[in-house]
Every structure is written in C-alpha cells, then in structure tokens.
C-alpha cells in the first residue's frame, strides 16, 4: 500500500524542490515512488492549449523515466478519466482504486495532471494529495518557466545575433554601393568603349568585394560571345579579346539566357582561367541586358583571397549588372551616333567635292570654245579687264593680236563646213602653242578669228608672236586650193601695243588692232601688222 501521506509528500518534496531540470525532477519522483511500491507507474500529462487534448510529458516507472513530449497521445480511457477530473466539482483530484489523478494547477488554471497508477491501494488522504499536487505543480511550473525563460533568452540572443549580422551586411552593402557609384562616375568619363571596359574591370577588382572579373559582349548578329578584359590568376587585368565562343558553349551565359535570369551564383565550384581549372570557390555570372535583348555577361569569383560569399553579394552583383548595362547601352548609342555623323560628314565632303568639280567644269565650259577647246570670248573679256587694270596701275605695256584665217569662206566652200571646222581646230591648236609666257592667252574671238592677249608685252614682242603664229599655221600645211595667197591655209594678224592711260578703255585696243589687221589684209594677207 502506498502511504500517500504527509511523510511521503515531504520525501517527494525534498526530492523535487531543488530540481529545476525536468529530467532530474522525473528521476527524483521515480526514486521516491519506487521506494514506496515497486509496480508504481506515473505519468505527467499536459493539456494542450489549442484544444482540450492531453499529451504525455513524461512517463516514470520505477526509477526509469522517459520524456515523451510532445508526440504521444493519451489513451482514450485516460482521456475520459481526465475529463471527469476537469468536470469534478472541486477540480482538485480524482482517485479510484488504482488511479490517483492530481490536477496540476498553475495560476488558477489546470495545466496538466499527475497520474499515478498502481496495483496497490492508494490511501485517500486529501491533505497529502493536495500537497503533492502543489509540490509537483510548483516544480513543473518552475521548470516550465525556467525552460520558457531559457527559450526566450536563446531566441533573444539569436535575434540579436541576426540583427548584428543584418546591420553588418547592410553596412557592407552600403559601402560597396558607394564604391560602385564612384566607379560608375569614372566610367562616364571613359574616352572609348575599350577604355570603359578596361576601367570597369580594373576598378571593380580593386575596390569591390570579389577578386576577379571578366566582361564578355554578345554580337547579336553572329550569336558569338567575345571576351573584352578579364583578370589572370595573379589579379592582373588582361586583354581577352582573343576569346570567342558560341553561347551554347558557355554554360553560365546560356543558363541566364534560357531562364532570363540576371544572375547565377555558385558556391564551392571549380574556378577556371584560360579554360583550365585553377581553384575552387564561388563564382557569379551576371547577364547584361538592353531591354529584352541580352548584350553581354560579367563573370566574377573569389579565386585569389577566397573571400566568402556575403549575403549582400547577390544585390551588389545585380546592381553591377544594371550599371554596366546602362554604360554599354549609352556608349553604343554614342558610338552609333559618332559613326553616323562620320558617315554623314564623309558623304557631305564627297558631295561637296563632286559639286566643286562640277562647278569647276561648268566654269571651264562656260569659258571655253566648244569647237576648238581654246578659251572663248567671255574668258578673253574677263582676262583683258584684269590685265588692263594691272597695266594701268603699274604702267606696263599690254598688246593684243587679232588673227584671221585668210579666205576661209573659200575654204568652206571648197572643202565643206566639216573640214572647215577641222581646219579651225588645227589652227587653234597650233596658235595655242606659240606663246607660253605667263599671262599670255589665246582665245577664239568668233568665226575664223582668234586673239592673243599679251600682258607685259611690248610692240617688238607682239610682232615676234605674230610672226611665229603665221609660221605655225603655215607649218600645218593645210591645203587650200582656192586661196589666191598660197596653196595652203594662211593667216593674217593685226596687233596693237599700249600702256593704258585710263580705266575701261580696252575697247579702243580692239579697234586699233582691227585697223592693223585690215592693213595686213589689205597688204596681201599672210602677214602681220602691229601698231
Ligand atoms: N566651218 C566653219 N566656218 C565658219 C565658222 N565661223 C565662221 N565661218 C565661216 O568663215 C567665213 C568667213 O568669211 P569672210 O568673213 O568672208 O572672210 P574670208 O573669207 O576669210 O575672207 P578674208 O577674211 O578677207 O580673208 C564665213 O564663210 C563663215 O561662214 C565655223 O565655226 N566653222
């Protein structure tokens, strides 16, 4: 028989009270019960807060105990006994021949129940039961409070640790973003795309939280991925423009493209350089986009220092991708504009040159005789005006010679107009070779008449030119069967030399030269006369 009396309670109380640990508490209770009766079984049950189910917290048999919270359901028969306990008037305890159920009250509420089952008769000592319930409730309450406190403290510590980590991470990210912003400003000032890519790799590996970086650009027409700048295994920036691969051969690029993901990060993977494994660590591939169109990739890793991947890396690398994308888009637009401007400038220059050439030609044509290709009267008038002014200013001599083919009407009549044209062309060519001094000009004056303009030329020189002209035409030996002068085509020349005394009086020069020509014709043609 269990003497569940005051003495038992004292003994149990001694065992229980100093214990805060549930296991020690169970052990002490088991030993106490075992010392009273060997087949005693004891359960500590707890009532669920959510529903009215009961769960077993611990089972004690002899000096053995087992903590079973929270999985073990309480048998249905026990559940109904417990229900009786709850509905009992005094809520204090329930007992029958083999069970003693002592409610565990805590702060006025039934929190659990101690169930002692034995084959022995349990003495019905109300005072002892109450005392036992009080002791166990107190111990359990203290234990639970202690556990709760420990749990809360652990939670608090955990939260505090997380908070510190979060603050550190945020601080790290802020610092890195600040650096990224500075790098971005430097990229704006790059003088070319190539310079920008080099600057990006150099600045990022020196200032951001990773060791190596490489930038690849995609040619959307060929689908090929080309290297730009990267980092070797010593952390030196290298030119990797030789690198070219198809997208499908580039695993990371393909992954980001297929999944339209901006970034992939792999930890504990093999790290490569020049297609060879050079270590292990984390690496990341960040895709660069122009809207929906992929334009390139950035790869980075921690090969050199092994710096662990931080919680902010993903955010930092994403922003690096966005920053680089913006710079590439802007740079490409600038380069396209530059190329367009260059091509426009080139086309404008080409057109201008064509126009100048056309104008030059037009100018030439408008001042050239179409049949003989020597300067025409318009050109002669312009040049004579210029030379008249110069001769007037410097008071230098100026001569003109009017040359006329003798009996050209007869020539036309005999040989026809076409041969007449041919004769005119031959004569013009021969005359144009006669005087090569600077400023001298031979022009077709009209019909079968030509004029020599001879700036700086005195009368003697004019006579010399006239005689040479006569000789040059004779030398052509163009047959002229109907000429009473000679059997060949001949010319007559009349000239005038003057030093101008007043402006715009060049017309007088022609009048005088014409008089001289008339003299030459009158004197029998094939000769020259200079006034
Ligand atoms: N084939 C050809 N004949 C021309 C051209 N221009 C003028 N003539 C001819 O040149 C001839 C000039 O004749 P005239 O003024 O009578 O002079 P000429 O017969 O040379 O007699 P003189 O001057 O006194 O020796 C005319 O028959 C014109 O038709 C031309 O461009 N081509």
Automatic annotation (TrEMBL):
It catalyses: 2 GTP = 3',3'-c-di-GMP + 2 diphosphate. It comes from the Bacteria. One of its GO terms (molecular function) is diguanylate cyclase activity. Keywords: Coiled coil. Residues 341-368 form a coiled coil. One of its GO terms (cellular component) is plasma membrane. Its cofactor is Mg(2+). Residues 396-531 form the GGDEF domain. GO terms for biological process: cell adhesion involved in single-species biofilm formation; negative regulation of bacterial-type flagellum-dependent cell motility. InterPro entries: Diguanylate_Cyclase (IPR050469), GAF-like_dom_sf (IPR029016), GGDEF_dom (IPR000160), Nucleotide_cyclase (IPR029787), Rev_trsase/Diguanyl_cyclase (IPR043128). PROSITE patterns: GGDEF (PS50887). The keyword Translocase does not apply. Its EC number is 2.7.7.65. It is an enzyme of class 2 (transferase). PANTHER family: DIGUANYLATE CYCLASE DGCM-RELATED, REGULATORY COMPONENTS OF SENSORY TRANSDUCTION SYSTEM. This is diguanylate cyclase.
């Amino acid at each position: 028989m269990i003497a569940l009396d005051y003495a038992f309670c004292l003994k149990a109380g001694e065992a229980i009270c100093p214990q805060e640990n549930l296991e020690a508490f169970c052990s002490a209770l088991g030993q106490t019960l075992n010392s009273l009766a060997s087949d005693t079984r004891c359960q500590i049950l707890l009532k669920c807060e959510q529903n009215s189910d009961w769960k077993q917290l611990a089972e004690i048999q002899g000096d053995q105990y087992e903590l079973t919270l929270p999985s073990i359901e309480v048998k249905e028969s026990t559940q109904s006994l417990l229900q009786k306990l709850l509905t009992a008037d005094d809520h204090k305890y329930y007992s029958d021949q083999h069970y003693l159920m002592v409610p565990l009250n805590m702060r006025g509420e039934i929190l659990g129940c101690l169930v002692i089952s034995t084959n022995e008769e349990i003495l019905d000592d109300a005072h002892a039961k109450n005392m036992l319930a009080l002791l166990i409730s107190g111990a359990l309450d203290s234990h639970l409070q202690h556990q709760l406190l420990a749990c809360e403290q652990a939670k608090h510590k955990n939260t505090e640790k997380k908070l510190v980590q979060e603050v550190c991470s945020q601080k790290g990210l802020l610092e890195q973003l600040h650096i990224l912003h500075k790098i971005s400003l430097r990229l704006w000032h790059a003088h070319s795309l190539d310079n920008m890519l080099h600057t990006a790799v150099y600045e990022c590996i020196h200032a951001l939280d990773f060791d190596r970086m490489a930038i690849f650009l995609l040619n959307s027409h060929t689908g090929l991925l080309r290297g730009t700048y990267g980092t070797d295994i010593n952390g030196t920036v290298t030119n990797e423009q030789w690198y070219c691969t198809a997208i499908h051969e580039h695993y990371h690029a393909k992954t980001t493209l297929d999944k339209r993901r901006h970034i992939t990060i792999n930890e504990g993977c093999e790290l490569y350089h020049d297609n060879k494994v050079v270590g292990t660590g984390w690496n990341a591939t960040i895709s660069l986009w122009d809207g929906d169109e992929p334009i390139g990739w950035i790869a980075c890793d921690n090969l050199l220092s092994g710096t662990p991947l931080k919680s902010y890396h993903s955010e930092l690398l994403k922003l690096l991708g966005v920053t680089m994308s913006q710079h590439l888009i802007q740079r490409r637009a600038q380069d396209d504009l530059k190329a367009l401007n260059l091509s426009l400038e080139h086309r404008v220059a080409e057109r201008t040159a064509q126009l100048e050439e056309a104008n030059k030609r037009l100018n030439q044509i408008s001042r050239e005789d179409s049949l003989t290709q020597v300067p025409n009267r318009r050109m002669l008038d312009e040049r004579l005006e210029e030379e008249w002014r110069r001769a007037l200013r410097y008071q230098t001599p100026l001569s003109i010679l009017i040359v006329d083919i003798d009996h050209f009407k007869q020539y036309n009549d005999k040989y026809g107009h076409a041969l007449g044209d041919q004769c005119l062309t031959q004569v013009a060519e021969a005359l144009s070779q006669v005087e090569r001094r600077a400023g001298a000009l031979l022009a077709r004056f009209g019909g079968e008449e030509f004029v020599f303009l001879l700036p700086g030329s005195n009368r003697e020189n004019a006579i010399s030119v006239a005689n040479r002209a006569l000789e040059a035409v004779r030398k052509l030996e163009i047959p002229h069967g109907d000429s009473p002068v000679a059997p060949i085509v001949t010319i007559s020349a009349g000239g005038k030399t003057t030093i101008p005394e007043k402006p715009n009086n060049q017309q007088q020069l022609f009048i005088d030269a014409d008089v001289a020509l008339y003299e030459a014709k009158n004197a029998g043609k094939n000769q020259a006369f200079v006034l």
